[in-house]
Amino acid sequence: MIACLGRIVHDSDAESKLDDDVSTIFNSLNLQGSIENGDVFSIASKDFGGLYSIKPLYLIRPSGAEDISRVVKAAAGTPHLTVAARGNGHSINGQAMADGGYVIDMRSTGENHFKLLTVNGSPCIDVSGGALWEDVLRRCVSRFGLAPRSWTDYLSLTVGGTLSNAGVSGQAFRYGPQTSNVTELEVVTGKGDITVCSETQNPELFFGALGGLGQFGIITRARVKLQPAPDMVRWIRVVYAEFEEFTRDAEFLVSQKEDESFDYVEGFVFCNNDDPVNGWPSVQLNPDQEFNPAHLPQTVGPVLYCLELAFHYRNSDQPSTVDMAVSRLVGGLGFVDGLISQMDVSYMGFLRRVKRAEQDAKANGVWDNPHPWLNLFVSKSDIVDFDQTVFKKMSQPHGAQEWVRTVSSTVVDHNRSRWRICDYSVRHVGWDSRTSVALPEGEIFYIVALLRFVPKGPSVEKKVAENREIVKWCIKEGLDFKLYLPHYRAKEDWKRHFGNQWTRFEKRKANFDPMAILAPGQRIFKRTNQ
Questions:
Q1: Which of 133, 212, 322, 483 has the most crowded Cβ, counting Cβ within 10 A?
Q2: Distance CA 375, CA 448 (A)
Q3: Residue 107's CB: how many other CB atoms inside 10 A?
Q4: Can you give the pLDDT at residue 28?
C-alpha cells in the first residue's frame, strides 16, 4: 500500500489511471466508506471563506471511526501525507484543507450516534462528530423536549468542528462555550488510535482536543449536556448611541444571576443612516415597527450599537407574567428611550434565525461570495480603545455599502459588500483552563466578529489586508486579545497566541500526533517523518 501511495503522488498519467489508483487505494485501506480523487472543483479544495483553493490528493467519506483510523495510519506510513477533517466547510482561511493530502468529509458520519443518556442524574446526548448542530437541536427538542445548553449562532456547523475551536454564542456567559458542555469524547488521534476520553479517562487528550484546532485528534463522537428546552422566546433589541453605555449594560447583564438577567445576550454595531441593509431599518424585529431616528441625541456618531436579548418561557406561562419579567429586566438598562424592538418567536425559530438569513443570501446570490472574516476575543480593559480605533477608524465603512449588521435582514443588494460586526461580552466563568482554547487574561472579555460578504475582486484582498492591519495594531498596542478561529502563518505568532500554554500545546502534539499528520491547514506544525 505504501508503494502504491508513493506512485500516485508522483505519477502523471491520464485521468483514467487516477480512477484505477482510487480503486487500488480503496481496496488497500479496506474502507467501508468511499474515496474519490481530489480536484479543484471538489468541496475538499474549498471552504466558506472563499479565500483559498487547495487541491487534496483524495476526498474520503468514512463510514465511521474505524475508516478514519485506517486513513490516518496509512498517512503515517508515508513521509509526507497529511489528513484534514472537514465538517461543513465553514472555515475561513483553509484550516480544513490538506495540500496533496487526505481530506475526510465528516458529514458522512453524521448519523452514526444519537443516544440519550443520564450521567450523574443529568441528561446527555451522544452524537456524531460529523452531525450538524441544527440536526441535533431538531431531534433533541422534538423527541425529548431537551436541548444542548450552549449553542453557536449559526447551526449548520458540525459538532466536532465547533468543539475543536470553542463554540460561542449569546448564552456562553451563563453556561460557558460548547467545549465546557461535553462530558466525553471519542477521538481518533494522529497515531490512528480510537480513544474514548473524559475528565477522568485519558483527560489530557480530552482537554487537548477541546479547542485544540484538530491538532491532537479527530472528534468522532461527543457526549453533550442537555437541559429542558423552553417553548418560546421574547426576542428584544435595544439601541445605544454611546459605546460606553452599551458595554456597561452588556457587562452588567452577563454578571447577574440566572433569574436576574436574560437567557441570551449579544450585541452588534450598525450604521447610523437609513440604509435598508445596514442601517436603521435593519434593526427592527417587527416589520410593522419603524426606527425613529428622532429619538437619537444630536451628538450621535456614524455608528450605533444594539444589544440583542432573549428571554425564555413556556406556553403555560401567563402573558402578563412574561411581560412583567421582561419589563423589569429592560427597565434597568440605559438604551436610547424609544428605540426598542421586540417580538415573540418559538425557541426553535429563534435558534434557527441565522438559517433564514442564509436562505435569503443564497436566493440573492450573496452566500457564495468570499468571506474575509475576522474574529477576536478582546479584554474588557481594551474594548474602548478597540472601539475608537477599529470600529470608528480602521474599519470605517467606505459608505454604507460596506456594512452589514443583522442576521435576520431579508434585503440584499447583489452589488453590496455586507458586513456585520458582533460585539458582546462574556466572563471567564464557565471556561475551563485545561482545554486548549486561548483566552485573554481579563475576567470579562468581548467576542468581536467582523463578518464581511465581499464581491469577488480586488476588494477581497483589501479586506484581508485590513484584517492583518487590525491584528498588527492589537499586537503593537499591547492589547489583551486572542484571535478566535486563529489563522497565523508563522510559528512565532502561534507561540504568542498560546502564550504560557504553548509548552503544554506542543507537548500534547508530540504525544498524540508526533508526526504532525493532522490539520495541516492550521499551519502550526510541519509534517515530520519520525
A1: 212
A2: 6
A3: 18
A4: 82
- Give Cα 490 distance to the centre of its chain: 23
Identify whether 90 is a catalytic site residue: yes
Cell 498524540, residue? Answer: 512
From residue 381, alpha-carbon distances to 171, 393, 440, 446 in Å are: 22, 19, 10, 10
472 close to 392: Cβ distance less than 8 angstroms = no
Instruction: Quote the pLDDT of residue 424.
Output: 56
β 102-105/182-189 pair status: unpaired
Q: Which residue from 308, 323, 482 is spatially nearest to 408, judged by alpha carbons?
A: 308
Q: Beta-carbon neighbour count of residue 160 at 10 Å?
A: 27
Considering 67, 249, 251, 266, which one is annotated as catalytic?
266
**How many Cβ atoms sit within 10 Å of the Cβ of residue 471?**
19
Whether 99 is catalytic: no
Chain centroid to CA 75:
28
| Per-residue pLDDT tens over the stretch 384-417 | 999 999 887 776 444 333 433 332 222 222 233 3
Instruction: Give me the residue label for grid cell 448611541.
Output: 241
Which listed residue (67, 134, 153, 186) is catalytic?
153
355/498 Cα distance (integer angstroms): 33
Instruction: Name the residue type at position 264.
Output: Y
Helix spans in 332-455 (H): 347-351, 353-363, 383-386
Choose, from 47, 90, 184, 382, the residue flagged as catalytic: 90
Give dist(CA 179, CA 165) in Å, integer: 8
**Cβ distance 73 to 92 under 8 Å?**
no
Residues paired with 439 in a beta bridge: none
